[in-house]
UniProtKB/TrEMBL annotation:
This is GTP cyclohydrolase-2. Its cofactor is Zn(2+). It comes from Enhygromyxa salina. Belongs to the GTP cyclohydrolase II family. Binds 1 zinc ion per subunit. Catalyzes the conversion of GTP to 2,5-diamino-6-ribosylamino-4(3H)-pyrimidinone 5'-phosphate (DARP), formate and pyrophosphate. The lineage of its organism: Bacteria, Pseudomonadati, Myxococcota, Polyangia, Nannocystales.
Length: 200
Protein backbone atom coordinates (compact mmCIF):
# COMPACT_ATOMS: atom_id res chain seq x y z
CA UNK A 1 0.00 0.00 0.00
CA UNK A 2 1.33 3.46 -0.86
CA UNK A 3 1.53 6.19 1.77
CA UNK A 4 -1.17 8.28 0.04
CA UNK A 5 -3.65 5.40 -0.03
CA UNK A 6 -6.25 5.67 2.76
CA UNK A 7 -6.38 2.97 5.40
CA UNK A 8 -9.64 1.19 6.13
CA UNK A 9 -10.52 -1.68 8.43
CA UNK A 10 -13.06 -4.46 8.19
CA UNK A 11 -16.08 -3.49 10.31
CA UNK A 12 -18.46 -6.42 9.88
CA UNK A 13 -18.86 -9.60 7.83
CA UNK A 14 -22.03 -11.58 7.18
CA UNK A 15 -23.12 -14.47 5.00
CA UNK A 16 -25.08 -13.50 1.89
CA UNK A 17 -26.91 -16.42 0.28
CA UNK A 18 -27.66 -15.30 -3.26
CA UNK A 19 -28.79 -16.31 -6.74
CA UNK A 20 -25.09 -16.53 -7.55
CA UNK A 21 -24.12 -18.85 -4.69
CA UNK A 22 -22.93 -18.50 -1.12
CA UNK A 23 -21.37 -15.08 -0.78
CA UNK A 24 -20.18 -12.90 2.07
CA UNK A 25 -20.78 -9.16 2.44
CA UNK A 26 -18.12 -7.09 4.18
CA UNK A 27 -18.38 -3.51 5.46
CA UNK A 28 -15.56 -1.17 6.46
CA UNK A 29 -14.61 1.82 8.60
CA UNK A 30 -11.92 4.41 8.09
CA UNK A 31 -9.15 4.93 10.66
CA UNK A 32 -11.35 7.36 12.59
CA UNK A 33 -14.12 4.80 12.90
CA UNK A 34 -16.51 6.31 10.35
CA UNK A 35 -18.51 3.64 8.59
CA UNK A 36 -18.24 3.52 4.79
CA UNK A 37 -21.19 3.07 2.44
CA UNK A 38 -19.01 1.00 0.10
CA UNK A 39 -18.95 -2.78 0.58
CA UNK A 40 -17.17 -5.88 -0.65
CA UNK A 41 -18.83 -9.07 -1.87
CA UNK A 42 -16.55 -12.04 -1.24
CA UNK A 43 -16.75 -15.60 -2.48
CA UNK A 44 -14.38 -18.17 -0.99
CA UNK A 45 -11.20 -17.65 1.02
CA UNK A 46 -9.40 -14.72 -0.57
CA UNK A 47 -7.15 -13.64 2.32
CA UNK A 48 -3.55 -14.08 1.22
CA UNK A 49 -4.64 -15.36 -2.19
CA UNK A 50 -3.10 -14.40 -5.51
CA UNK A 51 -4.86 -13.66 -8.80
CA UNK A 52 -8.25 -13.22 -7.14
CA UNK A 53 -10.95 -12.53 -9.79
CA UNK A 54 -12.05 -9.00 -8.90
CA UNK A 55 -14.58 -6.50 -10.18
CA UNK A 56 -14.54 -2.91 -8.89
CA UNK A 57 -18.09 -1.82 -9.68
CA UNK A 58 -19.47 1.69 -9.37
CA UNK A 59 -23.05 1.91 -8.19
CA UNK A 60 -25.64 2.47 -10.91
CA UNK A 61 -29.04 2.82 -9.28
CA UNK A 62 -30.88 3.07 -12.59
CA UNK A 63 -29.18 0.02 -14.04
CA UNK A 64 -28.31 -2.20 -11.07
CA UNK A 65 -31.68 -1.76 -9.32
CA UNK A 66 -34.22 -0.59 -11.89
CA UNK A 67 -32.88 -2.50 -14.88
CA UNK A 68 -32.24 0.47 -17.15
CA UNK A 69 -31.17 -0.44 -20.67
CA UNK A 70 -29.35 2.87 -21.21
CA UNK A 71 -26.09 1.37 -19.95
CA UNK A 72 -24.36 -1.97 -19.46
CA UNK A 73 -23.79 -1.60 -15.71
CA UNK A 74 -26.21 -4.26 -14.48
CA UNK A 75 -25.04 -6.64 -17.22
CA UNK A 76 -21.45 -6.24 -16.03
CA UNK A 77 -22.40 -6.69 -12.37
CA UNK A 78 -24.43 -9.82 -13.10
CA UNK A 79 -21.63 -11.22 -15.24
CA UNK A 80 -19.09 -10.61 -12.47
CA UNK A 81 -21.35 -12.25 -9.88
CA UNK A 82 -21.91 -15.22 -12.18
CA UNK A 83 -18.16 -15.60 -12.67
CA UNK A 84 -17.19 -15.60 -8.99
CA UNK A 85 -20.19 -17.77 -8.10
CA UNK A 86 -19.27 -20.37 -10.71
CA UNK A 87 -15.65 -20.43 -9.52
CA UNK A 88 -16.61 -20.22 -5.81
CA UNK A 89 -13.83 -17.65 -5.58
CA UNK A 90 -13.60 -13.94 -6.16
CA UNK A 91 -14.30 -10.41 -5.05
CA UNK A 92 -16.55 -7.52 -5.99
CA UNK A 93 -15.87 -4.07 -4.57
CA UNK A 94 -19.13 -2.10 -4.78
CA UNK A 95 -18.44 1.63 -4.73
CA UNK A 96 -21.04 4.34 -4.15
CA UNK A 97 -19.91 6.42 -7.14
CA UNK A 98 -23.16 6.96 -9.02
CA UNK A 99 -22.93 8.45 -12.50
CA UNK A 100 -19.12 8.20 -12.69
CA UNK A 101 -19.01 10.13 -9.43
CA UNK A 102 -21.53 12.95 -10.02
CA UNK A 103 -24.39 11.49 -7.94
CA UNK A 104 -27.91 10.43 -8.83
CA UNK A 105 -29.48 13.90 -9.07
CA UNK A 106 -26.89 15.12 -11.57
CA UNK A 107 -27.03 11.81 -13.40
CA UNK A 108 -30.73 12.38 -14.08
CA UNK A 109 -29.85 15.83 -15.43
CA UNK A 110 -27.25 14.18 -17.65
CA UNK A 111 -29.89 11.71 -18.86
CA UNK A 112 -32.12 14.67 -19.73
CA UNK A 113 -29.33 16.13 -21.87
CA UNK A 114 -28.80 12.74 -23.50
CA UNK A 115 -32.50 12.67 -24.38
CA UNK A 116 -31.78 15.88 -26.30
CA UNK A 117 -28.82 14.59 -28.30
CA UNK A 118 -25.78 14.73 -26.04
CA UNK A 119 -23.66 11.62 -25.51
CA UNK A 120 -22.71 10.54 -21.98
CA UNK A 121 -19.37 12.35 -21.98
CA UNK A 122 -20.76 15.55 -23.51
CA UNK A 123 -23.57 15.62 -20.93
CA UNK A 124 -21.19 15.43 -17.97
CA UNK A 125 -18.91 18.08 -19.44
CA UNK A 126 -21.90 20.35 -20.17
CA UNK A 127 -22.89 20.11 -16.51
CA UNK A 128 -19.42 21.25 -15.47
CA UNK A 129 -18.00 17.88 -14.44
CA UNK A 130 -15.03 15.94 -15.71
CA UNK A 131 -15.90 13.00 -17.91
CA UNK A 132 -15.13 10.60 -15.07
CA UNK A 133 -15.02 11.82 -11.44
CA UNK A 134 -14.34 8.43 -9.87
CA UNK A 135 -11.37 7.66 -7.62
CA UNK A 136 -9.93 4.26 -6.84
CA UNK A 137 -7.88 4.89 -3.69
CA UNK A 138 -10.69 3.76 -1.39
CA UNK A 139 -11.36 0.64 -3.47
CA UNK A 140 -7.64 -0.15 -3.25
CA UNK A 141 -7.73 0.33 0.52
CA UNK A 142 -10.61 -2.15 0.78
CA UNK A 143 -8.66 -4.72 -1.26
CA UNK A 144 -5.66 -4.22 1.03
CA UNK A 145 -7.86 -4.60 4.13
CA UNK A 146 -9.06 -7.95 2.79
CA UNK A 147 -5.39 -9.04 2.57
CA UNK A 148 -5.56 -9.98 -1.10
CA UNK A 149 -2.12 -10.64 -2.59
CA UNK A 150 -2.98 -9.87 -6.22
CA UNK A 151 -6.04 -9.67 -8.46
CA UNK A 152 -7.26 -10.42 -11.95
CA UNK A 153 -9.22 -7.26 -12.65
CA UNK A 154 -12.44 -7.70 -14.61
CA UNK A 155 -12.79 -4.37 -16.39
CA UNK A 156 -12.72 -2.70 -19.79
CA UNK A 157 -11.53 0.61 -18.34
CA UNK A 158 -7.76 1.35 -18.45
CA UNK A 159 -8.21 4.19 -15.93
CA UNK A 160 -9.43 1.66 -13.38
CA UNK A 161 -6.30 -0.44 -13.88
CA UNK A 162 -4.11 2.64 -13.51
CA UNK A 163 -6.03 3.93 -10.49
CA UNK A 164 -5.73 0.70 -8.54
CA UNK A 165 -2.09 0.10 -9.45
CA UNK A 166 -1.16 3.63 -8.39
CA UNK A 167 -2.58 2.76 -4.96
CA UNK A 168 -0.53 -0.37 -4.54
CA UNK A 169 -2.86 -3.08 -5.82
CA UNK A 170 -1.00 -5.86 -7.61
CA UNK A 171 -2.90 -6.58 -10.84
CA UNK A 172 -1.76 -9.86 -12.35
CA UNK A 173 -3.88 -9.38 -15.47
CA UNK A 174 -7.01 -7.77 -16.87
CA UNK A 175 -10.07 -9.75 -17.94
CA UNK A 176 -12.62 -8.22 -20.33
CA UNK A 177 -16.20 -7.98 -19.11
CA UNK A 178 -18.34 -7.33 -22.17
CA UNK A 179 -22.07 -7.87 -22.57
CA UNK A 180 -24.13 -7.97 -25.73
CA UNK A 181 -25.07 -4.44 -26.88
CA UNK A 182 -28.70 -3.41 -27.18
CA UNK A 183 -30.35 -0.78 -29.34
CA UNK A 184 -30.83 1.32 -26.18
CA UNK A 185 -27.15 1.33 -25.14
CA UNK A 186 -25.14 0.96 -28.35
CA UNK A 187 -24.38 4.71 -28.54
CA UNK A 188 -23.35 4.69 -24.88
CA UNK A 189 -20.93 1.83 -25.58
CA UNK A 190 -19.55 3.58 -28.67
CA UNK A 191 -18.86 6.69 -26.58
CA UNK A 192 -17.06 4.65 -23.93
CA UNK A 193 -14.86 3.08 -26.60
CA UNK A 194 -14.21 6.11 -28.84
CA UNK A 195 -14.00 8.91 -26.27
CA UNK A 196 -13.13 7.27 -22.95
CA UNK A 197 -10.65 4.61 -24.04
CA UNK A 198 -12.57 1.55 -22.87
CA UNK A 199 -11.43 -1.70 -24.45
CA UNK A 200 -14.60 -3.02 -26.11
Amino acid sequence: MLSSTPVVRVYARASLPSRHGELEVVSFTDVEGRRLDDVAIVCGNIAGAAEVPTRVHSECLTGDVFGSLRCDCRDQLELALDRIGADHFGLIIYMRQEGRGIGIAEKVRAYELQDNGYDTLEANLHLGFDGDMRRYDLAAAMIHALEVESIVLHTNNPLKVEGLRSNGVQIASREAIVSEPRDENVQYLRTKKAKMGHVL
